[in-house]
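Please go through this chain and its backbone structure tokens and walk me through the local backbone shapes. Keep your notes short.
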Amino acid sequence: MKKSVHTLWIYFVVIMVFGGCKSDVTPKQINNANFILTYPLDKDQKCYTISQTDDQGFLIIGSQDEESVSDENDIIILKLDKQGRIQRTNYILGDSFNIPFVAPQKDGSFLITTSSLGSRLVKIDRNGNILFNTYFEPISIFDYYSYPLITETGQIIFSSSFERYSANSIGNFHIFNTSGQYIKYTNVSKPVSGIPSDYTCLYKTEDTATYYFYGLERLGFTSGIPKIFVAKQVNNIIKKLIKVDANNKYNNNFVGFDAELRHIITTDGSLLLYNTQLEPGDHSIGYIALVNSNLIKLWEKELRIGSNGTFPKEVSICPDGNYLVCGYCKSDQNLTSQPFACKLNNSGELIWSKIYTNTNSGQFNSGMQLPDGSFVFGGTTNGFGGGKNLNDIFILKTDKNGELKELE
């Protein structure tokens, strides 16, 4: 998928002249607090995260496949104004960006890693400016990276999970300096002897030798009922390990290059884990669990929004301390993907839920509550909100009750 210099130059000129993606914003949409806007390109696109910028606009980080059937992606950065109109479009071109992992940081910046082949670490500030773009040699072409984080010392670190079947390891921690230069990697111990892990994600560090991470264990890469574990490792020795859903009786969706197990860190340092599980009858349900900083499970909940499946894609913390969950569900007989959002209290109980279309296909991948109480979501659509291609990035903004009122 390498592009020639001549082709890239033409591509750049077209973007500069026409402003990148096209979005038609009507005066009614500009004057209304709610809107749905799509940004169709000529290729398959995905939205990974949406956030608010310093000027009250929005930043979307996503990807674009070189071919609709490929997992090889260019990273897209869309800078929008507060009405959703595009102000700037940036691309990070790569030969094999297989599934970018976009990790928001405390200062509003974003760290991005890419799994397999295209081993890169990218940092973007809160307004979409690229701070660095570092290539490093992978340990294996099958390395699978987790969401990166910045430690208290300023180092950048994330884990990889290739060595899932080795005798003593399930992967490595990769360590970079504050400028994105690669320093070293260190081993991740195997939590339970003889049981491999499909996925390992580092979520907290205390010092240069103390790591907190979670993952999925099962007897085979694509078989067996997985068990979620959380572990603390000090000097390459497991100090504590818990099985979060030890009583899980369901199978799981394929957890490989698009792992469903994700997390957020709450304000008190607890770990909230969420994923999609497959129960008998091939109905998917959402699963959410809260583990405190001492690795004690506080609660776990099943989430059912659609009658034929519920797939949580992101959880964020609202200003009132409750949780906003967004993703997609399936309710009709055609199993159309329908974007949903719901709000949970800090005990995991449902406060409200909304499904935003029953006819066209779409899904939310990211959402947040804004300072004025309204909500904004970024996602991928095939027809919903005016989408034209196989997958188009779209944005949806609601009022403070999650309602999308008809535009007058």
